[in-house]
Design a protein that fits this description.
binds fe (ii) ion; 205 residues; four-stranded mixed β-sheet; mainly beta; 10% helix; five-stranded mixed β-sheet; 2 helices; single chain
Length: 205
């Protein structure tokens, strides 16, 4: 390979590794994930089983009812740099519309659903949860609450939504996002017996 061609390929490679590079050469900042309210259902105390698989509860037989959802994504800063090691927590209702660990008897919901889980971004910022696709509940379109922390404090609290849900446009929080809704809306595709969706979570600071 001659030198100019090798240099050209090297530049192409650099471009591929440098997303959001505008014509003037300065890395553009991508929009931060909008914040949304924590809501009233963050656990009062965290479950003993704190892993990233919400479809199983340690010590219990069976799996959570509902459609399995592989929820993956990346934790990034506004220059698309991975936030390796950062924690992301998620919580959402079970197949029967009930939140867990909020003071109501667990027997009133799906006891095989973990209700809350935590994952840590890898070296490329990637995280992965196995959960179920939450149903709507009165007044709300389907959504997954999440929060990101840097080990000492929360740096972002928001909610993730699903593309094509009829209730999205009637949901006051979804509507409040306006054009930013796209930054927290996942497109789902089939995956085995369930679905999967991915979301980049961009933290402002
Ligand atoms: Fe909620």
């Amino acid at each position: 390979m001659d030198i100019p061609r090798r240099q050209a390929l090297a530049s192409l490679g650099a471009l591929a590794l440098t997303p959001w590079l505008p014509a003037h050469g300065q890395p553009a900042e991508r929009p931060a994930t909008p914040s949304l309210t924590e809501g009233p259902f963050y656990p009062q105390s965290l479950p003993a089983d704190r892993d990233a698989d919400l479809t199983r509860v340690a010590g219990r037989p069976g799996r959570a009812a509902g459609t399995p959802l592989e929820f993956t994504g990346r934790l990034l800063d506004r220059k698309s740099r991975p936030l390796a090691g950062r924690a992301i927590e998620i919580w959402h209702c079970d197949e029967f519309g009930r939140y867990h660990h909020v003071g109501t008897p667990e027997a009133s919901g799906d006891a095989s659903f973990q209700g809350w889980g935590e994952a840590f971004a890898d070296g490329e910022g990637r995280f992965a949860f196995l959960t179920i696709k939450p149903p709507p509940y009165p007044g709300r379109t389907p959504h997954i609450h999440f929060t990101v922390s840097d080990g000492r404090r929360r740096v972002l609290t928001s909610q993730a939504f699903f593309e094509g849900e009829r209730a999205n446009e009637r949901d006051f929080l979804y509507r409040s996002l306006g054009r930013e809704a796209g930054l927290v809306t996942m497109r789902l595709e089939s995956a085995g017996k369930g679905v999967r969706g991915a979301l980049d979570v961009v933290v402002a600071a």
